[in-house]
Amino acid sequence: MTHDISAERAALLDAEDELAGFRDRFLPITDPGVVAYLDGNSLGRPLRATAERLQHLVAEEWGGRLIRSWDERWLTLPEEIGDELGRVALGAAPGQTIVADSTSVCLYKTLRAAVALRPGRDEIVTDTANFPTDRFLVDSVADELGLTVRWIDADPLAGVLPEDVERVIGARTAAVVLSHVDYRSAAIADLAAITRLAHDHGALAVWDLCHSVGSVPVALDAAGADFAVGCTYKFLNAGPGSPAFLYVNARHHAAFGQPITGWMGAADTFGMAARYVPAPGIRRALSGTPPVLGMAGVQEGVALLAEAGIERVRAKAVALGRWVLALADAWLVPLGFTIASPRDDERRGGHVTVGHPDAERLSRVFIDHGVLIDFRRPDGIRIGLSPLTTGFAEVRRAVERMRELAG
């Protein structure tokens, strides 16, 4: 099939884009050498509102109200932002999502809690292509507790399918730990089907939503998910190192015991009690003092997503993905590139990966010439498509430059 990939077509797509106006909500890129920023699925661009909010927070909330701001506003931010994030992007009712630590720490907490909820079971299921943090932590928790890891070797393009899980899950499985969207190929796992499969075998499901939140709608409650974690500095544009979130289904709250029992997760935070007594509900998932400056970025990112609407964001991500595929087929595949992401819209997340035997070197060349993309081993060049900041003409310029540089 021949696709119109002309500059005129790109201009038309931008003119018809319902979300085009949101690009003005972000600070401009000040480097004149940048042709296109296609790495928003690694680090989203900064919002104007975040810059203004941080200035106000430092000058007024911190500088003016000083320690009083803890009681006036800051202490309840983890739950408030978590509830809004759950409503806007995760399909989670209030009281189940909280902004806490890094993704790694949140994953450790939820994985340890999941295993503890299934005493007598001594296996964890994950896949060999999962993000390194997930694999490293699964190994670490298994070593700590004397468990066995059952590894899934999934097709790298298709991602983990329910039948892949079926082959390794069993009566000894305590938890299944998977990413909803594959960080390399962008393949979307069937969260609902795999969660049901885990439950059918008496296990719990722990989901990594880092490459879905803010790009792909998630329905945690409807799927009956047990636990989930995710970062906020990609499609939520909350800033480098911004705090992650974790979700604990309400049915697990009474028995949920997280392993890092800090004072912020205690029932009486300022009681200075001799023994730890967990707070009721999702608050017990906290450990140390909340990172207020980082949470400001999360709050602004979630507010923007609420205004844009996750369904419209998803529709544009799909359209951008189709556009990249058409451009890559016409301009890159003839140069020896391959498509390393699903072509089916329903199976592809918010980025497209192209493969090339010389991908590592080419990635450096592209970046040096203003096309900011990601290299992912062994041979993937990842084109991030952040719907609120990426335009169709911008993508066309980028792929055209890639063709020129690789030709």
TrEMBL record:
> What does the subunit comment say?
Homodimer.
Q: What is the name listed in the Swiss-Prot or TrEMBL entry for this protein?
A: Kynureninase
User: Does this UniProt record's set of keywords contain Transferase?
Assistant: yes
Q: Which reaction is recorded as catalysed by this protein?
A: L-kynurenine + H2O = anthranilate + L-alanine + H(+); 3-hydroxy-L-kynurenine + H2O = 3-hydroxyanthranilate + L-alanine + H(+)
Listed Gene3D superfamilies: Aspartate Aminotransferase, domain 1, Type I PLP-dependent aspartate aminotransferase-like (Major domain)
Q: Which keywords describe this protein according to UniProt?
A: Aminotransferase, Antibiotic biosynthesis, Hydrolase, Pyridine nucleotide biosynthesis, Pyridoxal phosphate, Transferase
The EC number(s) given in the record are: 3.7.1.3
- Which pathway, per its entry? Cofactor biosynthesis; NAD(+) biosynthesis; quinolinate from L-kynurenine: step 2/3; Amino-acid degradation; L-kynurenine degradation; L-alanine and anthranilate from L-kynurenine: step 1/1
What cofactor does its activity depend on? Answer: pyridoxal 5'-phosphate
Q: Establish whether keyword tRNA processing is in the entry.
A: no
MF terms (GO), sorted A to Z: transaminase activity
The organism encoding this protein is Amycolatopsis melonis
- Enzyme kind, highest EC tier: hydrolase
Q: Which family does it belong to?
A: Belongs to the DegT/DnrJ/EryC1 family.
Q: What does this protein do?
A: Catalyzes the cleavage of L-kynurenine (L-Kyn) and L-3-hydroxykynurenine (L-3OHKyn) into anthranilic acid (AA) and 3-hydroxyanthranilic acid (3-OHAA), respectively.
